Amino acid sequence: MPNSLNPFELIARRWQPSARFVERAALATVVMAVVIVVTGGAVRLTQSGLGCDTWPKCTPSSLTPTADMGINGVIEFTNRMLTYVLCVFVGVLIIAARARTPVRRSLTRLGWTQFWIVMGNAVVGGIVVLTGLNPYIVSSHFLLSSALLTVAMVVWQRAREGDGEPRDLIARPVRQLTWLLVGATLALILIGTVVTGAGPHAGDARKVHRIPLNWQEITQLHVDFVYIVLGLTVALWFTLRAVKAPAAQRRTVLELLVVLLAQGVIGYVQYFTHLPEVVVGIHMLGSCLVWIAVLRVLLAQRERPALPATAPTPTGDHETVQPEPAASSR
Known about the structure:
It is a single chain. By secondary structure, the protein is mainly α. It is 67% helix and 1% strand. A two-stranded antiparallel sheet has the order 1-2. The longest helix has 30 residues, at 70-99.
């Protein structure tokens, strides 16, 4: 008796997505991860954090916002619905990666990782509402979104390369300097969440709990880490130039430097103009772009070749068909 086919195998028999389609599906999840962060920031900046005052419903008696809740209810509910849109994009990626021959388990596993992060963050978002915008949980909500963006970037990179063992393209000391840059950038983002949790934008017009710190002092620490990250970026560029690293790797560092400088300008503008909502929102978008740029620097410093060709099994299992080289991003 033939083995029963799961839904993914049935789809694979009828649809063979191209490598380009899988790559674009992965890129779409990166874009949606950024959209989720920016729209989440819009919820906070429009004081709509408790626009829907319970979860998973919008009110105890209604799944959707009611007319008397005004625009704040609409904004909060729209942000919740975007989670389902994100799930659709992640689902398309998982299905495309699973349907393609040969099956690349690494992509499907990373796709499922994205899905479970989205689900976990949806639960955290509900806890945020039920706890009246507890600033510590709000910070974890943002950090989970950053984790989703990280995995999405890795998937996008993996979709453009093979499944062989990773090979470093630069010397180990340079790689260590890059990891130091990544760590400093992560610290910068973490401190930024503390600034948000202690700052004036509480997310709702009602009085809600804030992190009991002087937000201006935390902001100064945040600025100090900006200079540390800038210094490490410049040092890495000169190091790559000294060791005659490929132009593609140096270019990613220059792109990071441009994004950091732009983000720094936006940061100073929002500080000296007393944190206008629009500028703060642009700064949140900039934080996503900074993290993307840092990850691009890291991922450009190694490569994964295609696996050696393997003969198909007598059963004709499509998962063991000779792999195709992935499209190179360089």
